[in-house]
Amino acid sequence: MDSFSTLLRTASHEQHVEAENSTFMSDLLGGRLDLEAYARYTEQLWFVYAALETGADRLAADPVAGPFVRPELFRLSALERDLAHLRGTGWRAGLRALPATEAYAARVRECREQWPAGYIAHHYTRYLGDLSGGQIIRDRAERTWGFERRGDGVRFYTFEEVANPAAFKREYRELLDGVRADDLEKQRIVAECKRAFALNTAVFRALGEEFPLTA
Ligand code: HEM
């Protein structure tokens, strides 16, 4: 039987391709979006990471989700520095969640509070993605909008406390493979991972509608 980490990757593969090829992501990677669109996207991420990280320390003692709660991954303060750079010191006043973002954040909060194993699905979908494809997005953002390499504007993608991302990802997959869940619960985590990808794609769709290139 495939390991759980392989199962998660395989199960989400199709939706990963869909997310990568969403209009908003391909416009971003193609360098076709303006800075406003990038700032608006970064704001949406703030809501998602606030949901993932606020009170996550309470999960640290949980036997299932606890091993995944790693402060070196936390992105919220990096996002806040990026937003201060993108929007100025008053960034918080202009922060608005799109309805799709609100739905995503609400589901993450629900898992964080009530279903630690489900939280793992959201954790995996975001942090492993940020350590992987996120680096491609960072490179593109630096080149498109001229941010300092790994500096303000792209700190979200810069994991200063993860010295060796490849090794970190290997260890992370080992954590997944050792997750304390039975087969049925693992199936539920896989389903939640697919839901997490769908929630991401819905945010991209909403952003794509807000920033159509032909407008
Ligand atoms: C244009 C956008 C994207 C690009 C170019 C991209 C690219 C990649 C690449 C190249 C990998 C493989 C890295 C490796 O094997 O070490 C990867 C992995 C991953 N990506 Fe993405 N990605 C994008 C968007 C996303 C999005 C939107 C999500 C979810 C929110 C996501 C979630 C993941 C996850 C969870 C993995 C880890 C897969 C695993 O090994 O288990 N990616 N991505």
From TrEMBL:
The keyword Transferase does not apply. Keywords: Heme, Iron, Metal-binding. This is Heme oxygenase (Biliverdin-producing). Pfam families: Heme_oxygenase (PF01126). It comes from the Bacteria.
